[in-house]
């Protein structure tokens, strides 16, 4: 088992393991217009979670904002998740939403959390068993968070970094969006990019919905960060930034973080390019 991801083979062999919690995080559409499995099937014993309702701050002016520690703990308690559990997260696209939930568990201090490489599409491609999605309730747990602030960057952090350049901001949006060649998918949001940031479209670290090999990932990141300064991952709203974060985590334990508000917050708080 990789330090951050698991294969469908590993998961199938370990589905019955004690304290293994499987979380299905899916949505009907995505800003990247990637194909998704919209069937009513899930991996057996998966607990169906809603990223926005269960693990985001729905009162934030920005999408997909990290929830408070209290709200995160309450959701974990509702789903019967314990601090000692081994968590595997997957989505219905392949690798898209699952790294975001994985990162949220990491920042809240959960140690044993992984992403299913290839998600539900890869599971079904391997003709592995599924079951019909049903509403279930779980015995409430006593989950406690241990927040890890070094994994998070705020708007103010990114603004301060413009003068120091101590960290390299890596934008996961498509190159067309990064270069303002196409409109942003969110109505009224200006195009552009954070000054001094560089672009690695998140699709570049994936192949058919799964992460590329470690050798390929090393080559991708080495090409943009030869000085090996700490990386800060950004995107449109904090989702695909976590895809790049996880891709880098697969090959390196070096310091890294996510700009949670990403381009949406930057563009809204900086109406004009600087």
Textual characterization of the structure:
With 274 residues, this protein is an alpha/beta fold. The chain has two domains: 141 residues, Oxidized Rhodanese, domain 1; 120 residues, Rhodanese-like domain (Oxidized Rhodanese, domain 1, 3-Layer(aba) Sandwich), CATH 3.40.250.10. Helix content is 31%, strand content 16%. The strands form four sheets. The chain has a five-stranded parallel β-sheet with strand order 1-6-5-2-4. Strands 8-14-13-9-10 form a five-stranded parallel β-sheet. A two-stranded antiparallel ribbon has the order 3-7. Strand 5, helix 4 and strand 6 form a beta-alpha-beta unit. The longest helix has 12 residues. It is globular and about 50 Å long. The model has no long low-confidence stretch (mean pLDDT 95).
What structural class should be given to the helix and strand makeup? alpha/beta
Shape call: globular
Q: What would you report as the Rg, rounded to the nearest angstrom?
A: 18 Å
Number of helices: 10
- The CATH class label of the largest domain is Alpha Beta
The sequence of SSEs as H and E is EHEEEHHEHEHEEHEHEEEHEHEH
CATH superfamily of the largest domain: Rhodanese-like domain
């Amino acid at each position: 088992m990789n330090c951050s991801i698991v294969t469908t083979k590993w998961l199938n062999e370990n589905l019955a393991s004690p304290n293994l919690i499987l979380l299905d995080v899916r949505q009907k559409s995505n800003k990247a217009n990637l194909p998704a499995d919209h069937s009513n099937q899930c991996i057996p014993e998966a607990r169906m979670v809603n990223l926005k309702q269960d693990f985001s701050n729905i009162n934030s002016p920005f999408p997909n904002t990290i929830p408070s520690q209290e709200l995160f703990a309450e959701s974990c308690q509702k789903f019967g998740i314990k601090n000692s559990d081994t968590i595997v997260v997957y989505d219905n696209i392949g690798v898209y939403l699952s790294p975001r939930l994985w990162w949220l568990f990491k920042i809240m201090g959960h140690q044993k959390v992984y992403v299913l490489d290839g998600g539900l599409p890869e599971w079904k491609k391997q003709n592995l068993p599924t079951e019909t999605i049903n509403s279930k309730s779980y015995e409430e747990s006593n989950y406690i968070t241990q927040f890890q602030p070094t994994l998070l960057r705020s708007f103010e952090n990114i603004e301060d970094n413009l003068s120091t350049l101590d960290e390299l901001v890596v934008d996961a949006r498509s190159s067309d969006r990064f270069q303002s060649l196409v409109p942003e998918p969110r109505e009224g949001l200006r195009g552009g990019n954070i000054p001094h940031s560089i672009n690695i479209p998140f699709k570049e670290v994936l192949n058919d919905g799964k992460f590329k090999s470690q050798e390929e990932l090393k080559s991708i990141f080495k090409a943009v960060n030869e000085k090996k300064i700490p990386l800060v991952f950004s995107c449109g709203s904090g989702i695909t930034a976590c895809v790049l974060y996880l891709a880098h985590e697969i090959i390196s334990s070096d310091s890294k973080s996510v700009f949670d508000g990403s381009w949406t917050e930057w563009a809204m708080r900086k109406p004009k390019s600087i």
